[in-house]
Write a structure and sequence with these properties.
The complex is a heterotrimer of chains A (about 160), B (about 475) and C (about 575). Chain A has about 160 residues and is α+β, with helices and mostly antiparallel strands. Chain A has helices spanning about 5-15, 25-40, 45-50, 55-65, 85-90, 95-105, 150-160; strands at about 80-85, 115, 120-125, 140, 145. Chain C folds into 3 domains: about 20-150, Ubiquitin-like (UB roll); about 160-180 and about 190-275, Alpha-Beta Plaits (2-Layer Sandwich), CATH 3.30.70.20; about 340-570, Rossmann fold. The longest helix of chain C has 16 residues, at about 135-150. The chains are: A alpha+beta (about 160), B alpha/beta (about 475), C alpha+beta (about 575). Chains in contact: A-B, A-C, B-C.
Chain lengths: ~160, ~475, ~575
């Protein structure tokens, strides 16, 4: 399958590139946009980004592996990021993650992101989401859920199942 | 009773206050910008004339404003280091990569009052001849990035941003740049590298001081969200009035993020040094005390990197008596004024002004395990002591929390941490080491006991509850 | 033999501007050190603590720092404790001790004033009066801990590691490390035996992430092919695609790698480095004249490595040149002296050639030498040709130049052929004339050194017409097959002599190994032949031969073998 970026997205990225005096600066913004569109960042996406920004593919590969938000494989439609760090941990984020994993049949001991076989959900422990006052917090795709109770967690799963 | 002093957060929780520019304008928004650009030049006693921009730079210095990101360095002094003779463009970057565990103050501004930040940024850029600036926002705040982009567009349409701002001939463009999940981007040179499209590896200093060799090797100012917001208020109030807020050398207000084992976690804006740690935790209009039946065990007073304070500690602080003489006085931990200098004198720091409260139900060993895992995950891996030491610490605390502790682990942890602090390219080394050093020193008994208990249990044949690996998320192999 | 002419003293050059210096103390010793030192690109930059220490003969251990690479500052091995003179904030003057010496403030952690704070000496500029404590207990402790950190996840597989014997991790552990480690955790595992490129294998577990290889290939070779993937302790050197790290300079990363992470496919598992004899020599792959070190053991060459020479190649060389040694040990090397197909002794052959040449009529002899021969050999051939009235030439060899070291002139000594008069203007111009002369029967004797002339316009049928064809070469070819007199020569690794680079750098070869069989250094048998034909003598040693040549060749005026040195001298070309 050949890799192709829709012209509207490419135009958007070309505009973004003008925000910077040095093209390379647009790398992270490119990767965000490509990940949003394709669901993950493939080797082809890295090569495409490199050629657009006049870089070498390794320059982009370095970024994809450094910044944890970037994925090299497709994830579930509902991506549940549970904050692992102290303030959330104090309010039970480990138990919250375990609840998600248990309900979805995922390994709650694994450290990497876990995706359900049907591709509906990915559950992941992430570091501090900077909302410690409303712990525990969960970022579901782009929406922040605060003071997430076990019932609220089940509601997140219910909504995800409807997708 | 101690009170909040709402300067930055004044409108945040007001019913009906929205992030759009009309609302901001109705609340007096962009008046500071209008005032500053219309202000006259200032003649000094020695006959020297300051341009309006220089006046603002001097005012920020005179206001005593200290950086709200973590280091607490004088903002005016930071601006004064900028190389203005290089002929190169000067850049300003707003550090909105809020990621110090415990901290959630910038999130409030970004999401609820983005124009306050933008006005502060425009003022700061104008004062420093900056034509191009960026807001580096956490990747995990997509909504914040969206709101900022809308707000920037609004500001452009109203003539506060773009070409010929308010008819002054001054041009400025601000762009939003999203991070992608790296705590190290909070370090200003790591942030610059990241904005250049690279791995966020902090730069060596010397020679890469941002004020001289920053973004694209040009002079660069990196300021925290809250710091930039204060500039608006310094203009509005005047530097002298602003400096009356707070306490000497700790002027203005600060937003404190309270979390952990308290009844009313949240953000509270205070005059710096006018409220004590105890008031922050116990007063009903702040933290509202601990859960029923619980007592205080420890406080992490300035974000997870700061050294922990133990309940009952007493510190010797320098105090100026009524006679003007300096003397040392005993200050119990809860009576520490929440400011930069007192916490520093207590051997810790106010950092990003994030207070995490731990009650007596908490295991300090597990708490440290949680933090060490964070630092292992977030170490960029550029320099040896931190790359190797941060994960080493996490593995050691992981053992201690999974039945594989040893009696000597208290000293072992201190050994590892001692060899990180002060040896690294950036302050992350301290950030990773300080929790460890302070936990094992102040809660030595607890660590010793855990090691001894594990040894005893193993002697009786207990199996460790080991998980395969701590911090595995970045090791795809 | 006349005494060598003493060159007239050169007119006094204007005195160089005085070097500005700073006074610092290194390990208690007061030193005046230059204010600036050249950086990796040769531009003057403020002198660093590491450079200042070197001025005092103190080598501060380091991994990531390299003189010819941009500074990274990541390994932290070169951390040193230091102090600076205390200043009175009011008067801005130094505060003095009772004995009048300046009071020194040692650098300490701002938050823990009892603990020394080190600075990385590779990137920290010196300041007046600075004191550098390169062997203080605090400095030693910093080094120990960096070494301990570097070793916790290292596989400690020195027993099977090619780098053993020239590994900085080993060496510094001996010099600065501790015997034990506190580490009791599980090690991080990373990719092993990664096929990085056609010539390079990477062991990521041995890697200490100093990034020398990344910086070299990006900033020197101009091929931004390597990077670090993953994060933190899992950081891993990588290429985007394995197997594709294939520029012509990749093997320099093996030299640069302070540990055994990057190894050469050609060299790995072949030989323990401590068995290798090191001989200073030159690469003969092109006209650049890269300085090399030949690593050999008992007559077999195992590797070439670049030898640092800022006037020529710096510390680098190309992969083509580096791997251009295998032919030297080929089994089909010419090892026998033959006259008309019969194996004879050197004495018989030289005597026969000499007597035939002495009888040859002027103009009936032509001589084709090679620009791969040493200047001394070319000089001897030219003496012979002059006596015989022979037309001479050499064979040009052109290729593509690159941006770094590879020159379009693939001959190592084109300037040698020009300066000795073998080929005055453009090499190869006489070849058609020689061919025509053979065809016409005017040229009846041809002397060929080191070239297969059948590939350069003198067909085998023409060679068959000659009365005598004297050929000296190293490997068999179509010309050697037709030789009436075949003289087995020596490779550049088997003899001494000089080459002159395209830029006019005259540099020496040193003999690393013996020639196989009866093969001999050409200058040795040529001097016998020249003696037999011309009656001249007096150059039985390479030193004597060079000095004689220098006296007789205007471009070498004033030169003597003894003064050339390991890095050569510039001659006027």
């Amino acid at each position: 399958m050949s890799f192709s970026v829709p012209s509207s997205l490419e135009a958007e990225l070309d505009e973004l590139t003008t925000h910077y005096p040095v093209k390379r600066s647009a790398s992270l913004m490119f990767l965000h946009a490509l990940q949003e569109h394709f669901g993950y960042i493939s080797k082809e996406a890295m090569e495409w980004t490199a050629s657009k920004l006049e870089l070498q593919p390794i320059n982009v590969f370095e970024l994809v592996t450094f910044y944890p938000m970037f994925r090299q494989e497709p994830l579930g439609k509902t991506h549940i990021k549970v904050c692992r760090t102290l303030s959330c941990a104090l309010q039970g984020s480990a138990e919250l993650r375990e609840q998600f994993c248990k309900r979805l049949g995922l390994d709650s001991q694994a450290h990497t992101a876990q995706t359900t076989p049907d591709g509906k959900f990915t559950v992941e422990f992430v570091e501090c989401l900077a909302s410690c006052g409303t712990a525990p917090v969960v970022l579901v795709n782009e929406s922040l859920y605060q003071m997430v109770s076990p019932a609220a967690a089940d509601e997140i799963l219910r909504k995800g199942n409807l997708k | 009773m101690a009170e909040q002093f709402k300067l930055i957060t004044k409108h945040l929780d007001e019913p009906g206050f929205s992030p759009d520019i009309e609302c901001y304008l109705q609340h007096g928004g962009y008046a500071a910008l209008r005032k500053a650009v219309a202000s006259p030049s200032r003649e000094l006693a020695d006959g020297k004339k300051l341009s309006p921009q220089e006046v603002l730079r001097e005012d920020v210095k005179a206001s005593g404003l200290r950086g709200r990101g973590g280091a607490g360095f004088s903002a005016g002094l930071k601006w004064s280091f900028v190389d203005r003779r290089s002929g190169k463009p000067i850049y300003l970057i707003c550090n909105a990569d809020e990621s110090e565990p415990g901290t959630f103050k910038d999130r409030q501004i970004l999401h609820r009052d983005p124009h306050q930040l933008i006005e502060g940024m425009i003022l700061s850029c104008w004062a420093n001849d900056v034509k191009l600036a960026y807001i580096y926002i956490r990747g995990e705040m997509p909504e914040g990035a969206r709101l900022l982009n809308v707000a920037l567009k609004e500001a452009r349409s109203k003539g506060f941003l773009g070409k010929n701002i308010l008819g002054t001939g001054y041009d400025l463009e601000i762009h939003v740049h999203r991070g992608a999940g790296a705590y190290i981007c909070g370090e200003e040179t790591g942030l610059i590298e990241s904005l250049e499209g690279k791995r966020a590896y902090p730069r060596i200093k010397p020679p890469y001081f941002p004020a001289i060799l920053g973004l694209y090797m040009c002079p660069t100012i990196v300021n925290n969200v809250e710091t930039l917001c204060h500039v608006t208020h310094i203009v509005n109030m005047g530097a002298a009035e602003y400096a009356k807020l707070g306490t000497p050398n700790n002027t203005g207000t600060r937003i404190v993020s309270l979390s952990g084992d308290i009844n009313r976690p949240g953000y509270y804006e205070i005059e710096v040094g006018k409220v004590t740690l105890g008031q922050l935790i116990h007063d009903s209009n702040f933290g509202g005390g601990l859960k029923p039946g619980r007592s205080l065990k420890a406080i992490i007073p300035g974000g997870s990197s700061s050294k922990v304070l133990k309940a009952g500690e007493v510190f010797k602080l320098n105090r100026k008596g009524p006679d003007g003489q300096m003397s040392k006085i005993d200050v119990p931990m809860l009576d520490l004024p929440y400011d930069f200098d007192s916490l520093q004198q207590a051997g810790t720091m106010s950092g990003s002004s994030a207070v995490i409260v731990l009650d007596d139900s908490r295991s300090m060993v597990k708490t440290l395990g949680n933090l060490s895992e964070f630092y292992a995950h977030e170490s960029c891996g550029q320099c040896t002591p931190c790359r190797e030491g941060a994960l080493w610490l996490a593995k050691a605390t992981h053992r201690l929390t999974h039945g594989e502790g040893r009696k000597e682990d208290t000293a072992y942890l201190a050994h590892i941490a001692q060899n990180i602090q002060g040896r690294t390219i950036c302050a992350f080394g301290e950030a990773a080491a300080w929790p460890v050093l302070s936990f094992v020193k102040k809660f030595k008994d607890e660590f010793d006991a855990q090691g001894a208990a594990d040894e005893a249990a193993r002697a009786k044949g207990a199996q460790p509850t080991h998980r395969p690996s701590p911090v595995g998320t970045l090791n795809p192999h | 033999m006349s005494a060598p002419a003493i060159p007239a003293p050169a007119p006094a050059a204007p005195a160089p501007p005085p070097v500005e210096t700073l006074t610092v103390k290194v390990n208690g010793k007061t030193l005046q050190v230059p204010k600036t030192h050249p950086d990796w690109q040769g531009r003057p930059q403020p002198t660093t603590m590491l450079q200042a220490a070197r001025c005092g003969g103190v080598d501060i251990p380091h991994y990531c720092y390299h003189d010819k690479l941009p500074i990274a500052g990541n390994c932290r091995m070169c951390l040193v404790e230091f102090g600076t003179p205390m200043m009175d904030p009011a008067t801005r003057k130094p505060i003095l001790n009772e004995d009048g010496t300046p009071k020194i403030a040692k650098s300490v952690l701002p938050y823990e004033p009892g603990t020394p704070r080190g600075a990385i000496s590779c990137a920290t500029p010196i300041s007046p009066g600075m004191e550098i404590y390169a062997d203080s207990p605090a400095t030693k402790q910093m080094r120990e801990s960096v070494l301990e950190s570097l070793l916790i996840n290292h596989p400690l597989d020195c027993t099977i590691c090619d780098q053993a014997g020239e590994c900085k991790l080993q060496e510094y552990s001996v010099d600065h490390g501790q015997a034990g480690s506190h580490f009791v955790e599980a090690k991080v595992h990373k990719p092993k035996a990664v096929d990085l490129g056609p010539r390079i294998v990477l062991d990521d577990e041995r890697c200490i992430l100093c990034t020398r290889c990344i910086r070299f290939t990006k900033d020197i070779a101009g091929d931004d092919a390597l990077g670090i993937v993953n994060r933190g302790s899992y950081n891993t050197i990588s290429a985007f695609q394995t197997g594709k790290f294939d520029n012509n300079y990749t093997l320099n990363t093996v030299d640069l790698c302070p540990v055994g992470a990057l190894t050469s496919k050609d060299f790995r598992f072949k030989m323990r480095v401590w068995f290798l004899k090191e001989t200073k020599s030159l690469c003969t792959g092109c006209g650049t004249g890269c300085n090399i070190t030949i690593g050999s053991r008992e007559g077999t060459i195992h590797r070439f490595e670049p030898r640092d020479n800022d006037a020529v190649n710096g510390p680098w060389m190309c992969d083509t040149g580096r791997l251009n040694y295998k032919w030297i040990g080929r089994p089909d090397r010419l090892t026998e002296v033959r006259v008309n197909g019969q194996k004879v002794t050197w004495a018989t052959a030289i005597k026969d050639i000499g007597s035939r040449l002495t009888r040859a009529s002027s103009g009936s002899v032509a001589l084709i030498a090679s620009a791969r021969q040493t200047t001394e050999e070319l000089f001897l051939l030219k003496s012979l040709a002059t006596r015989l009235g022979a037309v001479t030439d050499s064979v040009p060899r052109e290729g593509e130049a690159d941006h770094l070291l590879v020159n379009a002139d693939r001959n190592p000594n084109t300037n040698g052929t020009r300066l000795t008069g073998i080929a005055f203007t453009e090499a190869g111009m006489q070849l058609p004339l020689i061919a025509a002369g053979i065809e016409a029967g005017t040229i009846r004797t041809l002397i060929v050194f080191g070239e297969d002339v059948t590939k350069h316009g003198i067909a085998p049928e023409l060679l068959a017409k000659l009365e005598m064809l004297v050929v000296s070469d190293i490997l068999p070819n179509a010309t050697t097959a037709l030789a009436t007199h075949l003289l087995p020569g020596a490779s550049h690794a088997e003899k001494r002599g000089t080459f002159i680079s395209v830029k006019g750098r005259l540099q020496k070869l040193t003999k690393a190994i013996e020639s196989p069989g009866d093969a001999r250094a050409e200058w040795e048998f040529l001097h016998e032949l020249v003696h037999d034909v011309t009656g001249r003598n007096g150059f039985t040693s390479i030193e004597g031969l060079f000095n004689l040549m220098a006296r007789e060749t205007p471009a070498f005026a004033g030169l003597e073998w003894a003064n050339i040195g390991d890095k050569g001298v510039d001659v006027k070309i």
